[in-house]
Design brief:
Chain B: This is Hemoglobin subunit beta-like. The structure holds two protein chains of two kinds. By secondary structure, chain A is an all-alpha fold. Chain A contains seven helices and no strands. Chain A is globular, with a radius of gyration of 15 Å. Chain B is globular, with a radius of gyration of 15 Å. Chain B is mostly helical. Helix content of chain B is 69%, strand content 0%. The chains are: A mainly alpha, B mainly alpha.
Chain lengths: 143, 147
């Protein structure tokens, strides 16, 4: 399910629309993931606060979204763009790649709530495809 | 047996008491058919599904979306026995309709996203958790009788 030219255009323009709200969206998505899919908390046992208003969650949510933004800038070579992050997740963090899908789902839920009119089914399918490719590139170095 | 907190029961009851079935049902099903196009395999006789606009404007999709959403009512009314409520429907989906049960999850994800768009801030993490737990139980019950 590779990204068509149309998918890339849609993803880029939606990212522009998201603009400065990306940090909030990332923070909320991460918070929701920890709440709705509690098994994901196992990766953050070293944080003192895993609630929705946790400063650690907020900070990390914006870190994640910054990386997503960078990936969108290099959308024609996601594998290359995410190579070092993939190594980090594979060898150091050892996050089960199934969790990338779970975070992607929560990102989409939050984006839909922020942009109810703009997040049409067409925008949704392109964004979903992008997040799946992103997850795939992030798991590239695992084995 | 699934255990529900008072908050979860109240949340599900509240969401469905305000549900606009004829808007949300069609939105969820059409979104599923657009985002996961392989799900169209079950709707060969629905006419024009050639592109997103056709799917979203298709009256058969709209009607069926409403039907499916109303199908959740029985679970809302009997949250303590969802598994038995859907035993027959599960057999139907398995033996007559031959629907891959993975599709139930895809549709429930789309429904969650449509509800999130509709409720906005009100659909916070706690509400989402309750709603997704409810849908997960329904999805599990619908796949229960497959063999």
């Amino acid at each position: 399910m590779s990204l068509s030219g149309r998918d890339k255009t849609i993803v880029k323009s939606f990212w522009d629309k998201i603009g400065s709200r990306s940090a909030d969206i990332g923070a909320e998505a991460l918070g929701r993931m920890l709440r709705v899919f509690p098994q994901t908390k196992t990766y953050f046992a070293h944080w003192s606060d895993l609630g929705p208003d946790s400063p650690q969650v907020r900070k990390h949510g914006s870190v994640i979204m910054a990386a997503v933004g960078e990936a969108i800038g290099k959308i024609d070579d996601l594998t290359g763009a995410l190579s070092s992050l993939s190594e980090l997740h594979a060898f150091k963090l050892r996050v089960d790649p199934a969790n990338f899908r779970i975070l992607a789902h929560n990102l989409i839920v939050v984006i839909a709530s922020y942009f109810p009119a703009d997040f049409t089914p067409e925008a949704h399918v392109s964004f979903d495809k992008f997040l799946m490719r992103l997850a795939f590139a992030l798991s590239e170095r695992y084995r | 047996m699934v255990e529900w907190t008072d908050f979860e029961r109240a949340t599900i009851a509240d969401i469905f008491s305000k549900m606009e079935y004829e808007v949300i049902g069609p939105a969820a099903l059409s979104r599923c058919l657009v985002v996961y196009p392989w799900t169209q395999r079950y709707f060969g006789n629905f006419g024009n599904l050639y592109n997103a606009a056709a799917i979203i404007g298709n009256p058969m999709v709209a009607k069926h979306g409403t039907t499916i959403l109303h199908g959740l009512d029985r679970a809302v009314k009997n949250m303590d026995n969802i598994k038995s409520e859907y035993a027959e429907l599960s057999v139907l989906h398995s033996e007559k309709l031959h629907v891959d049960p993975d599709n139930f999850k895809l549709l429930s994800d789309c429904l969650t996203i449509v509800i999130s768009a509709k409720l906005g801030k009100e659909f916070n993490g706690e509400v989402q958790a309750a709603f997704q737990k409810f849908l997960a139980v329904v999805v599990n019950s619908l796949g229960r009788q497959y063999h």
